């Protein structure tokens, strides 16, 4: 899975919805764009019924990490990710902000097409640390 991600996906980590003026504690759109273009490493592990993604990126010359844990699934022919927890570095991301960011990321028209499942796949899930695919 890690090889596939490295060669096929343009992963864009988002910790919060960017605000045009930056707002207190919220990254500006330019900050999010810089994170997108500076992802240096991505590792994915499947543990129990969850997927654990760890990303390393540069932000204004500083190395940062994004650690996400969640559950995979399928809905209406698209990949679904339900976040369980997340951290930027050692700082936890509040659940409401995490859910909002993932929802916005998955609803984006650009990302939506990347998340479309093949027509013969009806479901995806992690079971006992393995990806289980159900076909029609």
Q: How would you briefly describe this protein structure?
A:
The chain is built from 4 helices and 7 strands, in the order ααβββββααββ. By secondary structure, it is α+β, with helices and mostly antiparallel strands.
Q: Secondary structure elements and their pairing?
A:
Elements: H1 2-8, H2 29-37, E1 39-47, E2 50-59, E3 62-75, E4 78-88, E5 91-92, H3 95-107, H4 109-114, E6 121-127, E7 130-135
Task: Tell me the number of strands.
Answer: 7
Tally of helical runs: 4
Radius of gyration: 15 Å
Q: Within the largest sheet, what's the order of strands?
A: 1-2-3-4-5
Q: Provide the low-confidence segments as ranges.
A: 11-24
Task: Characterize the biggest β-sheet.
Answer: 5 strands, antiparallel
Number of individual domains: 1
Name the descriptors.
about 140 residues, alpha+beta, two-stranded antiparallel sheet, globular
Structural description of this entry:
The chain is of the alpha+beta class. The chain has one domain. It has 4 helices and 7 strands. It has helices at 2-8, 29-37, 95-107, 109-114, and strands spanning 39-47, 50-59, 62-75, 78-88, 91-92, 121-127, 130-135. A 5-stranded antiparallel β-sheet has the order 1-2-3-4-5. Strands 6-7 form a two-stranded antiparallel ribbon. A hairpin with a 2-residue loop joins strand 2 (50-59) and strand 3. The longest helix is centred in the C-terminal third of the chain and has 13 residues, at 95-107.
């Amino acid at each position: 899975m890690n090889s596939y991600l490295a060669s096929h996906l343009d992963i864009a980590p988002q910790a919060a919805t960017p605000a045009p003026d930056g707002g207190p504690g919220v990254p500006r759109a330019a900050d999010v764009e810089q994170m997108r273009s500076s992802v240096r490493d991505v590792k994915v592990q499947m543990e129990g019924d969850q997927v654990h993604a760890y990303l390393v990126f540069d932000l204004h010359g500083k190395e940062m990490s994004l650690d996400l844990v969640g559950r995979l699934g399928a809905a209406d022919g698209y990949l679904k990710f339900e976040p369980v927890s997340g951290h930027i570095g050692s700082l936890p991301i509040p659940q409401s902000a995490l859910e909002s960011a993932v929802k916005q990321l998955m609803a984006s028209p650009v990302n939506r097409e990347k998340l479309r499942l093949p027509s013969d796949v009806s479901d995806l899930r992690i079971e006992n640390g393995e990806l289980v695919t159900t076909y029609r």
